[in-house]
Amino acid sequence: MGFGPGRSQSFFLVLAAARSEKLGGRGSHVQIGYEWQMCFFVCLLISCWFLGERNNLETGRKRIPSCSSSSKAVLGEGTMTYFPEEVVEHIFSFLPAQRDRNTVSLVCKVWYEIERLSRRSVFVGNCYAVRAERVALRFPNVRALTVKGKPHFADFNLVPPDWGGYAGPWIEAAARGCVGLEELRMKRMVVSDESLELLSRSFPRFRALVLISCEGFSTDGLAAIASHCKLLSELDLQENEVEDRGPRWLSCFPDSCTSLVSLNFACIKGEVNAGLNLSYAPTLDASDLTKMISRCVKLQRLWVLDCISDKGLQVVASSCKDLQELRVFPSDFYVAGYSAVTEEGLVAISLGCPKLNSLLYFCHQMTNAALITVAKNCPNFTRFRLCILEPGKPDVMTNQPLDEGFGAIVRECKGLRRLSISGLLTDKVFMYIGKYAKQLEMLSIAFAGDSDKGMMHVMNGCKNLRKLEIRDSPFGDAALLGNVAKYETMRSLWMSSCNVTLKGCQVLASKMPMLNIEVINEWDGCNEMEENHGELPKVEKLYVYRTTAGARDDAPNFVKIL
Amino acid sequence: MEAAVGYLGVNADNLKDTELRLGLPGTGAVDDHHHLSSQKALPSSVPSTPRGKKRAAEDNDDEATESDDAVEAAPPVAKAQVVGWPPVRSYRKSCFQVAASKSKAVGNKDEASKNTTAPAAAVATNGSLVKVSMDGAPYLRKIDLRMYKGYRELREALEAMFVCFSGADNNSGANPSEFAITYQDKDGDLMLVGDVPFDMFTRTCKKLRIMKRSEVTGLGSPRQTKI
């Protein structure tokens, strides 16, 4: 990876900034003092540029030497005598955000080395986007590793069991190459007891394990963690499928265990002070509930069931002025059932809680007027997820599609990063989304749209789109192939029960070799697909993601990777 | 659904149980559920917008991909479902279903609420609902073995469940020592409950059978029935 000084360096810096998205990671988490650090950093770069430029003028031609010993006189030695490695590393420590660290590592070979050896935290958004060994080799001194496995729709049983997402390779690679590992976070992965055993024995400084929506292990694996991780301070298990082999594992914590600070295996998310999770309590009396909530004036995060009713939400609106996140879950999962919350509750919340920025709302009916009002009252939404339980249900007052309502949301909420839409929706809503939702990173679509145009609006318009998941919508090959370069800027695309055909997937695969195109056919439809040569067979489930690892070798037989 | 049953009156559950019809207890007829859902749709405060009661036309009944728990606690087959819809995590759905089956088994709403407020992360992927038969009883029951911490709790629950059948000719109710609790294990053998550690028992038990002592021969001395 040779980059030169001077203009080439500036050029590569710009390129790195543009390409850094590819290596994943979110925006900077460090806000305070960030501008000062960036100033220092930029000054450093400018000084490098000057050195390079001076050299070019002297020699009269552009050279692009690598930052090896031969170019020390040009740049290497110049920067290194001014800034020894330790100093550069110290400067990098002000850039904790992965995106920024990826950027600096592209500047030159020396910086790549310094950065990778000093990297403390690695986030892998898709475990199949990169090989585990490669991550372990590149970042041997990593302390905190986060890996995500299955696509989001796996939460709703749309991904067949045994699809993949195995934690084994990651724990094994880390055990071989990253012995200083202290924290491991995994989401939607399959973790075996053997892996947990290996984990417990491989990392002497291991202190924090967070497993969210994982499966494949039992309390025996937890017993190994409890027994061997002497410095364990955090064990956080949320919504996992754990085989319960008895409470014996709890007694495996050594008597001398003084390190455990945070133990969470009861699905309560976040600090109790700032948040309240009542979403597993259907028999809580509605009036008791609202009485309690009316006293929680400092509440920032509230998760409830729809038993709270519109009236209860009005109480929340008048009491909880600091509310930032609200989730209202359904107590009756059946499509044509009954719910005590409607669009009125949502409007009340929007009126009373101006700080609201994150919403997950299950209900049985909605109106455009309500959504337009909500959008005006709460322009600060970063996450807006509305689920009308009956697929394709129109505005309950006007019988119109809900295009205008959601259009208002994306138009007013300029910082919207995540959106889930539902109800009766035409291509028009996607036109609005493509036009206005410029910060949107994740979009979930179900039972919506009329034609390929819908999906293409999104693919062409949403500049920051990272994850797109679609089910039961009439988007086909034209939409899939409408903007193939886009997939390289995204983490993944999921499409199930749409109109995409195998031919379309094959075309995509041939055009974009850096993508894995997974055709998932639970019912062993491979044979079916070969039989119907006349009519184009539709792909039941499609999962597309960018990767540097090539086709994965742990795919089950019902997954075909093109 | 359980709440709606209460709406009908205190004895609704018992009435439904003794109703003569074909099929396993717990699976209701189509009519029942329509009746229940129309009961539910009578809110005390009338909203300004009409309550939509359109049923989705394209429903498929694929919810049976879930474990036995789901089949047991779910409403009847006629209430069709779309796979993976609504987008609620299976974990959340199964917590409600576990709560529903527990309240069915124990017949005690208070206990059910205790379980729903703080569900443990440990939810077994295999169903552990087993049928319980009692010699002389007209119908069987089903219980979730995971709900019990040990043999004593299990025994108490079973006694509570079947007390109505054993008191026919005994004024003071069932005499526990008259009965032995046996089970059928993975190999199909009839075993006496209580010999192995409770964990192992819950893993290997396929069916429970409460037998009259007089029929229990060669399974051990009467003292062994004390668990």
Automatic annotation (TrEMBL), chain A:
Pfam families: F-box_5 (PF18511), Transp_inhibit (PF18791)
GO cellular component, one term: SCF ubiquitin ligase complex
Domain F-box positions: 83-124
GO aspect biological process, one term: SCF-dependent proteasomal ubiquitin-dependent protein catabolic process
Protein origin, superkingdom: Eukaryota
This protein's name: F-box domain-containing protein
Source species: Zizania palustris (Northern wild rice)
TrEMBL record, chain B:
Family matches, as InterPro entries: AUX/IAA_dom, AUX_IAA, PB1-like
Biased composition (Acidic residues): 59-71
Keyword entries, A-Z: Auxin signaling pathway, Nucleus, Repressor, Transcription, Transcription regulation
Cellular component annotations (GO), alphabetically ordered: nucleus
Function: Aux/IAA proteins are short-lived transcriptional factors that function as repressors of early auxin response genes at low auxin concentrations.
Name of the featured protein: Auxin-responsive protein
Entry similarity comment: Belongs to the Aux/IAA family.
Source organism per UniProt: Zizania palustris
Subunit and partners: Homodimers and heterodimers.
Residue span(s) of domain PB1: 127-213
